[in-house]
Amino acid sequence: GCRRATATAAAALYDPRTGVFTAVGSLTTPRMFHVAAKLADGRVVVAGGAREALLRPVDAARYPFPIDPTAPLDTIEFYDPAARAFAGGTSDPGGARVFAAAAPMPDGSVVITGGIPATDPSRHDLGNALATSTVCGGVALACRTGPPLARRRAGHTAFAITGDGVYLWGGSVELDPVGGVDGYHFEVLRDEATSFALVEVETMQATRNLFFAATAQYFDFRVLSAGGLQRDRTTGAFTLATTEDGGGPVYVFDRSHGQNGGIATGKDADFDKPAMSTEAPRFLGSAAGLPDRKSAIVAAGFTSLSLEPASALERYDESTLTLTSIRVGGEPRLLREPRGGATTTSVGDGSVLFVGGMAATTAVLQTAEVYADITVPPQAAPLPTEGR
What we know:
The chain is an all-beta fold. 0% of the residues lie in helices and 36% in strands. It has strands spanning 3-6, 10-15, 20-26, 35-38, 44-47, 52-55, 67-69, 75-80, 85-91, 101-104, 110-113, 133-137, 142-145, 157-161, 165-169, 186-190, 197-199, 214-219, 222-226, 229-231, 238-240, 250-254, 262-264, 286-289, 295-299, 313-317, 322-325, 327-328, 331-332, 343-346, 351-355, 368-372. The strands form ten sheets. The protein has a four-stranded antiparallel β-sheet with strand order 4-5-8-9, with no helix packed on it.
């Protein structure tokens, strides 16, 4: 029942003015499940991932997670937009990483965090996740060992908040406390710090320590998270994260709330407001903020651990703390092709680009779609304070 997926080295630029993709050479190494983040000078660091992976039926005894990267990579390269070419080929001092996360740092460099080095031969449940990081920067793209993480993580998200630091959310395989803070909390790398540190975020719970959720930093200090997987801390088994109404959980992290930020859920008992949720649970979906900085699009993903792709297209509205299906004439607007593991990118003019992903046949898609948002308010409204 296993199926093999093989990475490509293809790369292309999309021009929103023409709607055309143009090939821009090739990656120095074919890769998938890699990470990418932009340096201050505009170049893009591309790191880790795998050349090949097996898509396995979930087996609680050996393979609780369905994606088995069989050829992990320890190489790092960068894309130079001026030359329209990839170069580099340096090695990650922390070794191979798959299912890692990356984010820009205040000094213009990029930090790569966590991930798994390879499949655990005894049990593929991400339990061998890394607590290491790598920092890359400089004209010649030198990479060095970065600050250690407080907890081992994979399938998490990383984001930078201006003037504050780099945050990690989710993907923790170690929930035991450090310095009195439970391991499922966020951790942050402050400026000039020598290590990441766990921080208590208001209303953060172990069940909100999600793996492979769709995330979007739609405002500098607000991050949307939708769907994802939960991992049993005892058995290592994965299940789709669900809400009381049968959907997938949707949370918003607001750094401005409290000492270390807080999580809004949309739920408010006084006004009988339900918690935000996707229409159906899913993981490895994707999300992107819209130019108004108060809304975001959440799309696609897999609706089961058997990797059944979804065509869902939903919109988050900060002013009401709701996530609703996009409808035209009362009918839901869906992606033309179901796709899981796709990328979702805000083009900047109100439109959103969906690229690639996996189809129901587990074939990798070479297609793209565009959603056009014709209602872009001039400025963002403050996040409601109720229901945190």
